[in-house]
Amino acid sequence: MNGSPVKTRLLTRAARCWAFVSQSVLTTLASRPPARVSVQTRAGRCWAFVSRAVHTTLASRPLALLSTQTRAGWCCTFVSRKVHTTLASRPPALLSAQIRAGRCWTFVSRAVLTTLASRPPARVSAQTRAGRCCTFVSQSVLTTLASRPRARVSAQIRAGWCCTFVSRKVHTTLASRPPARVSAGFHATRLLTRAAQCLAFVAFVASADAQNCDSIAKLALPDVTITQAASVPAGKFTFPGGRNAVEVPAFCRVAGTIKPEVSFEIWMPERWNKKLLTVGNGGLAGTISYGAMVAPLSKGYATSSTDTGHKADNDGHWAAGHMERVIDFAHRAVHVTTQADKAILAAFYGNSPAHAYFSGCSQGGQEAMTEAQRYPRDYDGIVAGDPANNWVHHYVGAHLWITLAMQKDAYIPASKIPALAEAVNNACDALDGIKDGILNDPRKCHFDPASIQCKNGDAPNCLTAPQVDAVRKIYQGGRTPEGDQIFPGIVPGGEAGPGGWARWIAGSGPGESGHAGLGLPFLRYVLFENPDWDYHSFRYARVNGVDSDVDFADHKLGPIFTNMNPDLGAFQAGGGKMIHYHGWSDPDISPLNSVNYYESVMAKMGGLSETKRFYRLFMVPGMQHCTGGPGPATFDMVEALDQWVEHGNAPEQIIASHATAGKVDRTRPLCPFPQEARWKGTGSSDQAENFVCVQP
Q1: DSSP of 71-138, one letter per residue?
Q2: Is 88 exposed, middle or buried (CB count within 10 Å of its CB: 0-12, 13-18, 19+)?
Q3: What are the residue ranges in the chain where pLDDT is below 70?
Q4: Beta pairing class for 302-306 and 477-479
Q5: In Å, what is the CA distance from 165 to each residue of 18, 189, 277, 644?
Q6: Of 217, 216, 171, 166, whose CA–CA distance to 194 is shortest?
Q7: pLDDT of residue 312
Q8: What is the pLDDT of residue 577?
């Protein structure tokens, strides 16, 4: 592209989608005298970048009249001859990087970038280097878009293609002619009209959004029925079951069912970041996790959730006589929902997601492990929090075991839990060098509950002998009479607080705790399928060669629910990345379950150095079940996962925070297991920068 600026402008007018504009037209657009129009504009760069004042004017228009792409810089790839030449002469990796860095600002999809990056500079068409299409797309892409109806073209525009694909006629003309043969005789006003169709989107975009969302209701997918498809405007939105309205961006809300009874919703934002994030459930599920969908939607994710195939809380009635519901709940529902989600996204946006992520805690952590082990190609990245992946053993070796330990005289009322918590902290809090109410690694704490045994009778600040025995059983964890561990015990630390032992272990009375509330309905209706089953009758022992009830549970439900397979080879081979976290003070699911599983994966997958290439465990000191507790328990695992999947930045630490009355009062780094955070010895122990991750 040798020549003077005048020739450059002629090439611009001859070759670009709609920049066949004269100085007078630029002057009109800029509403400024020619002298005020920037030199860069006259030299052939993006003529929309005329001045800050013009940008300010454009950016102040209503969203309905001006797209995000418009506010971001209109068609910002009308770069000068110099820039084109530089880009064309660089290796494809650098070319792609420069495109992502902002040379081509029209939100090109990963597919297009990948195509360009795989071609040598010489293969990048001359038409592209001349600047005809502002997204550097190939002629095949232009042809594809040109052959689609206007509504589909608009969808592609909103999904991130070049905003100058304005009509089939223009596309056909441009796609079929090289730059030299594109007529320079188009009238500027005609082209500007077509440009305005694309850049301003005017009312058409708003109506097309609604029409495109509504059209999803007619989408035909195997075994899927779309029950709702409606546009939700930006602003206040109250989701089902929500107490208060929350602020949301504009999105397309789609609800559906998958045979036999799996309900799901997917929310697709108007400004999509090209990623899917599915959120998990808690307890025995039975509801869509609407509350967990709001935050990722606001960050640009298409976000999804399922009720896992039944509608109920934690009463278990839904499972009686319905093994298909049990299977859906155990593993199938999330998988089939994921398949439906991806098909709906492709239909709505015209593109499949560049990345798909799953994030869940507790039952959601179990779902996360299910996906990694049973359906390893569903997701590129997974966040698994406090997972109940050893599901059956957790129910018989923790929920039921702890409920049985807290019977009759052994029952510890909630009023005594603070005394127990104080005794644990007095014995073990300072082991990590800081007395802050947090046990950095409770495995190092060898607290004996007999240290607070009552001397005479009973009292509020001590434990009776039966109560001491109950605490020991809880720390010990479920075991068979032969001494075989069924499920690891709860570790010392984090007994106090609303998410501690008072809720999960004491409750309002024997058989009325959090463990009982989750465990007994499942065992009654899913395992034994008997509404009159008495939990006191559970047999942990084998008698005269007859299987125990633990054996019965393993045979009946283990193949459906248990996700303890250490072989994650298929997930790793597909490029998957997983961040697994667990609160050291979890009084529901023992954190030792996560430690044991991670160590089994290390043994299977080639040791720590190989495992941490795709899978990292972060233990969270002082965090109770999924949230809360004395330690910093607020963090963004999804952002860390996204950085790992997209950019290869494996998390070396993740900053967690703790707040009181809404004000952050402590931060601390979470370290990849087996490392732990150690105070440097100087500076505040409430600030993360004063800690380092070290081997224990």
Answers
A1: HHHSSTT---HHHHHHHHTS-HHHHHHHIIIIIS-S---HHHHHHHHTS-GGGS-HHHHHTSSTT---
A2: middle
A3: 1-211
A4: unpaired
A5: 9, 17, 30, 34
A6: 166
A7: 81
A8: 99
pTM, 2 dp: 0.73
Q: What is the pLDDT of residue 209?
A: 55
Distances (CA, A) of 203 to 54, 197, 207, 208, 572: 21, 10, 6, 8, 46
Decide: 117 and 96 in contact? Cβ < 8 Å. yes
Question: d(Cα 433, Cα 447) in Å, to the nearest integer?
Answer: 17
For position 495, what pLDDT does the model report?
95
Q: Is the peptide bond before 149 cis (omega within 30 degrees of 0)?
A: no
Domain layout of the chain by residue ranges: 5-200, 213-353, 393-561
Q: How far apart are CA 176 and CA 472, in angstroms?
A: 80
- Cα–Cα dist 221/258, whole Å: 10
What whole-number distance in Å separates Cα of residue 302 and Cα of residue 300? 7
Q: Is 415 exposed, middle or buried (0-12, 13-18, 19+ CB in 10 A)?
A: exposed
Six token digits for residue 584: 């050291």
Using DSSP bridges, classify how beta strands 355-361 and 275-279 pair: parallel, antiparallel or unpaired: parallel
* 361 beta partners: 385
516: Cβ–Cβ under 8 A, 6 or more apart, which residues?
399, 403, 507
Largest CA distance in the chain: 104
Rounded Cα distance between 463 and 134, Å, is 75
Catalytic site positions: 362, 586, 625
The sheet carrying 224-232 orders its strands as 224-232, 251-258, 262-269, 302-306, 275-279, 355-361, 381-385, 577-583, 615-620
Helices (H), 574-651: 591-605, 608-611, 637-647
Instruction: Tokens for 183, please give them.
Output: 């007529």
Q: How many CA atoms lie within 13 A of 630 on its CB side?
A: 21
Number of Cα atoms under 13 Å in the Cβ half of residue 624: 19
Residue at 476: amino acid letter: Q
- What are the structure tokens assigned to 465, written together? 């002998």
Helices and strands of the chain, counted as H and E runs:
29, 17
The neighbour count for residue 625, using CB atoms within 10 Å, is 24
Predicted local confidence at residue 72, as pLDDT: 35
Distance (Å, whole) CA 117 – CA 2:
25
